[in-house]
Amino acid sequence: MNRIWSTAVVEFRIAGRNRWVAIAVLLMVVFALVLAAAGAAPTGDIGADRLSVIVASLTSLAVYLVPLIALLMSFDAVAGEVERGTLPLLLTYPVSRAEILAGKLGAHLAILTLAVAAGYGAAALAAFWADPASVAGLPALGRLVWSSVLLGATFLGAGYALSALARRPSGAAGLAVGLWLGAVVLYDLVLLALIVSDGGGALTTRALPVALLANPADAFRLFNLAAAQASAAAGGMGGAASAIPLWQSALSVALWPLLALALAIAAFRKVTP
Amino acid sequence: MTSTLTISHLTKRFAGVEALRDVSLSVEPGQRVALLGHNGAGKSTMMKIVLGLIPFDAGQVTVCGAAPGSAAARAQVAYLPENAAFHPALTGEEQIRHYLSLRGERPAQALDLLARVGLADAAKRRIGTYSKGMRQRVGLAQALIGQPRLLVLDEPTSGLDPVSRRDFYALLDGLAAGGTAILLSSHALTEVEARTDRILILSKGRLMAEGSLADLRRAAALPVAISVAPAAGQDAALAAALPMARANGDGRLHMDCAQGDKLAVLARITGLPQVADLEVIPPSLEDIYSHFSQRDGQ
């Protein structure tokens, strides 16, 4: 435990000195405030409080930003140690590879939590200032915070796995960008193309829910939209969100971090210094 | 007392090429053993196997009574890599505190350790600003944590100036006196000279020689070079008296003789009236090393 804690403290310090903490917090705060300002328009029409509407917008933001920040922080985790030549020495210490990753995860997750809390917090303050009834949206905001952290943990784990597989920071960065594009951007486009070509047939009704649950980013979006019952404001995915039971998307959101971390540990164990 | 490190019939292949072939050795507590060899002789490979960083193909390796790389072995073994590298954003003190925590020791000892290797003044500076020699000292400081039973040092003195090198060997002497077994590698016999108890010479993955410097000198049985200066005007007479000697233009006569014949040859030369001066040059450390590492012979 002491070893994991010490690793986490060192990693947090390194991330701080490399400006990662500042970059992550600033990114989340700026985008959240922009959304809070822009997403305020539809409140009157749908009768929801301002914060609930903002949470729906923040969900769409988090789906893109949280995986991006997580991958940016994690792609260097193993490959960077290999390139600097620090890994052989570290592995001769009485610390297991799982403990090393756990320490790094602790630090990166703390930074991500800080960034998410600062960003969403800023948006919430803006909402309260404009509409005191926003208190009704607080449970949705809380759900968004912890599910964002879980989404981040998934992509941190995936980033560590890619880092261990690539063994070079440049290769790991390429794989990380590829994963982000594939999981967050292209995946939905492909699903959309399938729905359009299928025209509401069996593929859409049976395969689509499974496909959405299988992607951690989509599961995250489904979970937050369904839970907040703000689907009307979010549009797009609203239909899908109501069709898939809440427990299924919650389960996907909760299981993905474990799966990603198991993959990361397995990939790291295969690295020979 | 049992050996700290035992290796028997160790073989390691990389893609069909034998990096180590049937190597056997043991290192006792408190012993300082130097592992010599050219680049690619298998020194680093052997050290990585001892540390459990890479697997091996055949033979047995026991480190402090446990398998290499096992938790029990790692708790008792310290390592200094060839080019010790650390995260440039951390200070020397932060890095050593972290290593102390990983070994379950009190992080507060960090400054003491850095002072022992002469880095007390730089402890609060980032390692990114350190010179190569200073990074090597940080590496040495982390290797001193918690009185390890086996210390594995990969070319530890390559980046150090002669004074630092002497301090470094003094530190090792202190550790060895406390019972730590030390295995260090080098590619020059001149670097390890008298500071080690035993020397192992590795060439192309095979152990070529093993023993103290005196043992190796005896086993190599290299000829002694003798150089004789003639008295004024006696050049031709001396050359006639010593037909086996050769002149190479510096006005002196040179000859080689086997260790066993040395006294007889010297007696004969000193008996000659034409001799003004005489020098006996024993085989150098580099000669002995070359003899065993076989580069010159092939």
TrEMBL record, chain A:
Record keywords, A-Z: Membrane, Transmembrane, Transmembrane helix
Keyword flag Calcium: no
Pfam families named in the record: ABC2_membrane_2
Coiled-coil spans in chain: none
The keyword DNA damage is annotated on this UniProt entry: no
GO cellular component terms attached to this protein's record: plasma membrane
TM spans (from-to): 20-41, 53-75, 105-129, 144-165, 172-196, 246-268
Any one GO molecular-function label of the UniProt entry: ABC-type transporter activity
Protein name: ABC transporter permease subunit
TrEMBL record, chain B:
Keyword ATP-binding attached: yes
A Pfam family: ABC_tran
Annotated protein name in UniProt: ATP-binding cassette domain-containing protein
SMART domains xref list: AAA
Organism in which the protein naturally occurs: Paracoccus lichenicola
InterPro entries with a match to the protein in the record: AAA+_ATPase, ABC_transporter-like_ATP-bd, ABC_transporter-like_CS, ABC_Transporter_VariousFunc, P-loop_NTPase
Residue ranges of domain ABC transporter in the record: 5-229
Single GO term (MF): ATP hydrolysis activity
Keyword tags: ATP-binding, Nucleotide-binding, Transport
